[in-house]
Amino acid sequence: MPLRELDTDYLVVGCGAAGMAFTDALVDASKLDVIMVDRRHAPGGHWNEAYPFVKLHQPAAFYGVSSLRLGDDAIDRHGPNEGLYEQASAAQICSYYDLVMRERLVPTGRVRYFPMCDYAAGPDGTHPFVSRVSGEAYAVTVRKALVDANYLQPSVPASTPPPFEVAPDARCVSVDKLASIEDHPDRHVVVGTGKTAIDACLWLLQGGVSPDAIRWIRPRELLLNNRLYMQCGNLVGNLFEGISLQMEAAAKATSLADLFDRLEDSDQLLRVDERVAPGMYKGATVSASELAALRRIEDVVRLGHVRRVERDRIVLEQGTVPAGAHDLHVHCAARGLRLAPAVPMFAPGRVTLQPIRIGLIPFNAAIVGFIEATRSDLADKNRLCPPNPLPDVPLDWVRGTLIGMNADRMWAKEPDIAAWLEGTRLNAARGLRHPPRSRGASAGPARVRACGEAASCRRAGIASGGRGRGPRPARACACA
Ligand SMILES: Cc1cc2nc3c(=O)[nH]c(=O)nc-3n(C[C@H](O)[C@H](O)[C@H](O)COP(=O)(O)OP(=O)(O)OC[C@H]3O[C@@H](n4cnc5c(N)ncnc54)[C@H](O)[C@@H]3O)c2cc1C
């Protein structure tokens, strides 16, 4: 088959959340053209293989690409996310990215999309890719840069075998199969610490499974962001209140341990079991009602990682626990995003998409796209886009917050970036200069706060006073 030769300004490898947000911002702010390549059949990256009950852990109102709204920007009126901006399901996210590609990017006439194509850098800096269906081979001449939109290489349970052995007569499914199980097992054994395991536990509880019929194997205790404070639009006051509480905690802290106590006491960071020292922080969020539900699961195994699941026992790093023959083990133990080392965001002929603000993949990719479109000096672009490696342990919150805030300070000094930040829907903090009127959000309280009284607050479940700092100061609460 003859080689097809193409040329372009940018070759974006990866049409997941990062590649899509980068390209959308780049073509919006320039006249440049782009070729987008992905080995998957549809844009949206790993969301195409997500488990059926997954939702974003952040509001949909600031996920996706800048040029198209995801969801209705509504505030949930009931359910575990009540009072907060709606999240989006995997099905919504996938159809959204399909729409972005078909109705936003391709119609610009400057974006060409090649699904089902594998890219592999060629010798001497060439850029070949091959169709996985037709075998057709392409060679691309890249005038400006190759964009690596897969640097974080997320891995999800659907495409990653469990990192433990499973005996042939034991039952174990990956989380994406959980919704198709036909019989109900005696016990669900959820294996994993992160957001996926949390989702699996919540989904089971919401489906009526008794907390006593769930065992949660949680090698590390996870520190979580409080979704109450990760809001935008009509609730942007919550976001700024959270930031000021964090800064107050940092200013008053006498040690790192004291800082984390203060962050938890002010409900900025949460954990399911406050008796156990947290060992993990990934930037995932939880609502107060979800946290309260998770705390109903009491059978928590903390003996390190699972090594082997057998019919009648589970072998872990630090011991063994008995298992039942009718237990269903649920694999939620994929790595998620790779803890990749920071590399310069911009190098000659190459852009490597990485986080800047913690946990906001689309926002970060979009601002890199805008800066690439509007600046040419490599050093200046790198100054404005400091890579912020993904967090893994609680201490990483400090570094991640510092890098993100420093970047914000630099952006505020550049009028065009400040204007872009004010205009893009991906920036949760927009509205500071011009507070949004209703952007389609159903009317909600301007500020929704938890009072911190676990017994009386409808949004409670957060405060339990477990760290011995005494009662928290009373605050205005929407529940009053
Ligand atoms: C359960 C869950 C919930 C999450 N919730 C949020 C959230 O609320 N907010 C948030 O910001 N993030 C969230 N995340 C993080 C999420 O991973 C990112 O938002 C985002 O989807 C990652 O996108 P990506 O583009 O970096 O990677 P991917 O989605 O993996 O996209 C990369 C693409 O590159 C393609 N590719 C790779 N190599 C090649 C090659 N050589 N040739 C061709 N194609 C290639 C792959 O096929 C893939 O489609 C969540 C993650 C999970 C697992």
What's the name of the CATH homologous superfamily of the largest domain?
FAD/NAD(P)-binding domain
State the low-pLDDT regions, or none.
435-480
CATH topology of the largest domain: FAD/NAD(P)-binding domain
| Percentage of residues assigned to helices | 25-40%
The outline comes out as: globular
Q: In whole angstroms, how far apart are the ends?
A: 71 Å
* Tally of discrete structural domains: 2
Structural class: alpha/beta
What CATH architecture of the largest domain do you see? 3-Layer(bba) Sandwich
Number of helices: 10
The gyration radius over C-alpha positions equals: 23 Å
**Series of secondary-structure elements, N-terminal to C-terminal:** EHEHEEEEEEEHEEHHEEHEEEEEEEHHHH
Largest sheet: 8 strands, mixed
Query: How large a portion of the residues is in β-strands, by DSSP E?
Result: 15-25%
Q: How is this structure best described in words?
A:
The protein has ten helices and 20 strands. It is globular, with a radius of gyration of 23 Å. Residues 435-480 have low confidence and may be disordered. The protein has two domains: 4-54 and 89-154 and 338-412, FAD/NAD(P)-binding domain (3-Layer(bba) Sandwich); 157-331, no CATH class. It has helices spanning 17-28, 90-105, 195-206, 236-252, 256-265, 288-294, 361-374, 378-384, 396-412, 415-423; strands at 4-13, 34-37, 111-114, 117-119, 127-131, 137-148, 165-166, 172-174, 187-191, 214-217, 221-226, 269-271, 278-286, 299-301, 306-309, 313-316, 319-322, 327-331, 346-347, 350-352. With 480 residues, it is of the alpha/beta class. It starts with a strand and ends in a 57-residue tail after the last helix. The chain binds flavin-adenine dinucleotide (FAD). The site of flavin-adenine dinucleotide has 33 residues, from helix 1, strand 4 and helix 3.
